[in-house]
Specification:
single chain; alpha/beta; acyltransferase; cell inner membrane; 11 helices; 322 residues
């Protein structure tokens, strides 16, 4: 890295940190109004990724009119910008004594039981609500997790972002070369968390998501089977105002109960369907700006565990980006 590039990265990190300081200095209600204004600008003037989001919504909710889709896109941007504001405020306002003011827990008893057992656990979620808050909150409650994340090109910014994520016990595993660490976590009975709603490319497992085939990571199913790890589909949904959430468990699947001929496909479709049901309840809180359906299926089934080589598993793990 040249000295000029290094200085540029450092300058960007300084600017970002100052913006976060400014966001922390602004009351959340003011930040909420600012998020609404930015959402209007991104939707109706700049039209940032508008065509991608509109096409996704047109397929997912065919009964919506163009005006209804536009309104939903604007509400999506509002939630996204508000999430940034909330992340800036979280370390300052949330702690062990007051978290109940901000979070309602739903259907978590069975997950807590699983987390206290010796078996590993896999948490699956998507770009919905405030997923960053979820990892922070789990650590605050005494349940550390390990999450795969792409290393940012800016090393200063990468360290800054990961410092927030790991402040309460959310350990970050780098995307490149992280397969051995993931396997070590599961072997030790730890908890792995995956964002599982992005395209896995041509080699992914194609399952139905909002009525269309979507390339999905098969590594999650493979890891669940290989390490006897139950999968819990979890979410953090905003409840009408800034920093007010429902943090819940949609469903839990024990791999010991999966007896179908093609367990990887079954598990992959299962958690994808659970995510879809969560999103349908509050579609404005989902990131419709991803090109989730950009790949077309060329095979009808996912690989069974015995058909996948060690290199394929490693490659699949490397592509699970959070």
């Amino acid at each position: 890295m040249s000295h000029l590039t290094r200085f540029g990265h450092y300058l960007v990190c300084v600017i970002v940190r100052w913006l976060i300081i400014l966001a922390q200095a602004v009351p959340l209600q003011v930040g909420n109004a600012l998020a609404r204004a930015l959402a209007w600008l991104f939707t109706r003037v700049l039209r940032v990724r508008y065509q991608v989001a509109d096409d996704n919504l047109r397929h997912a909710f065919p009964s919506l009119s163009p005006e209804a889709r536009r309104d939903l896109i604007e509400r999506m941007w509002h939630h996204l910008f508000l999430m940034v504001m909330e992340v800036a405020h979280t370390p300052r306002v949330l702690h062990e004594e007051n978290w109940r003011r901000f979070v309602d827990l739903k259907n978590v008893r069975e997950l807590v039981k699983r987390l206290l057992e010796d078996r590993p656990v896999i948490l699956v979620t998507g770009h919905f609500g405030n997923f960053e808050f979820g990892g922070y909150m789990l650590g605050l409650l005494g349940f550390p997790t390990h999450t795969v994340a792409r290393t940012l090109d800016n090393p200063f910014l990468d360290r800054f972002v990961n410092a927030f994520r790991s402040a309460r016990g959310q350990h970050i595993i780098p995307r490149v070369g992280g397969a051995e660490q993931i396997e070590a976590v599961l072997q030790a009975g730890g908890t792995m968390a995956f964002l599982a709603d992005q395209s896995a490319g041509r080699k992914g497992c194609f399952v139905q998501f909002f009525g269309r085939p979507a390339s999905t990571y098969k590594a999650i199913g493979l890891l669940s089977l290989q390490y006897d790890a139950p999968i819990a589909v979890v979410y953090v949904k905003r409840l009408g105002q800034p920093m007010r959430f429902e943090m819940g468990v949609k469903a839990i699947l024990d791999p010991r109960e999966v007896t179908v001929r093609d367990p990887v496909t079954f598990i992959t479709q299962w958690y994808t369907t659970q995510l879809e049901e969560i999103i349908r309840e509050s579609p404005e809180q989902y990131w419709w700006i991803h090109r989730r359906w950009k790949e077309q299926p060329r095979v009808k089934r996912c690989a069974a565990p015995e058909d996948v080589t060690e290199n394929e598993v490693d490659g699949e793990l490397a592509r699970n980006v959070a």
